Structure formats: structure tokens, C-alpha cells
Amino acid sequence: MIRAANPSPRQLLRSPVLFLAFGFGAGLAPRAPGTAGTLAAIPLYLWFSSYGAGVYLALLLAVCVAGVWICGRAAQRLGVHDHSGIVWDEFAGFLVTMSVAPPGWLWILAGFALFRLFDIWKPWPISWADRKLKGGTGIMLDDVIAGVFAALLLYLVSVAVK
Fold this sequence. Notes:
Number of strands: 0
Radius of gyration: 15 Å
Number of domains: 1
Distance between the termini: 52 Å
């Protein structure tokens, strides 16, 4: 078990679980690792969205299901529940947000801003999930719910501007 504030880059490279949980290293950002993790999710979104809606949703489901295990295992290894450097949940939440977004950089920026807003603000039931649920499920679910809230708002905006 690693009981450090942050694992070293060497420790990340030696542990596939920590490497994924820390968003390929984005979670090592000294300030705002959640924001860094969400930024690191943008290339993943672009890659996933290039395959069409059906494949995107299948990959999104895989990210979320795997994320429960990845985040839970990383938290165990670090000895800290929901360590700030664990950003796989931000990847999942941003990908949920973008599941309804029209194509284009304006929508990516809007999705980024809305997801970060809900992830930081944590209105109910996001705050409930953040406080009450433990393990990988708890780490993942508050961000997935924040992604759903952001997706709903993003969808409403996209319909309104058509």
C-alpha cells in the first residue's frame, strides 16, 4: 500500500491501476487535478465519438464499469478514499456529459464547463452520493451523476439554439 500524498510518476508507470486511475498522469497536477483530469478526457472523447453513437455508448459503459474497480482498487492502494489525484471518475463524468453533445469545439468547451460546475458545486443528489457511498462506486457515482446533470443542461441548450 502506498501512503503518500501522491504516488510518484515512477509508481504510476509501474502500476496499471494507478496509471489509469490518475488519468494517465493528469491526476498528478499540483493544482486542480480534477480539472486536469477532465482536460485529459477530451482526447478520449474525440476518439470515442469518432466511432458513432452506438460504439460511444458501449465504450462509455465500459469506462464506467471498469472505473468502479479501477477507482476502488486505487483508493485501497493509496489508503485514501477518493484521493484527489484519482481522476478516472472525471473521465467518466465528462464522457457522460458529452454523450448528448453536438459535434464541435464550442460544445466541448460548454460540456467541460458544465461538468466542472456540477462536479464542484455538487447539488443534491450528487452531494448525497459523494458523502454516503464508499469504495469505487462512491468515487465514480457522484461524477457520473454530475455528468448526467451537465448532459441534460447541455442537451436543453443545444435544442434551444437549433
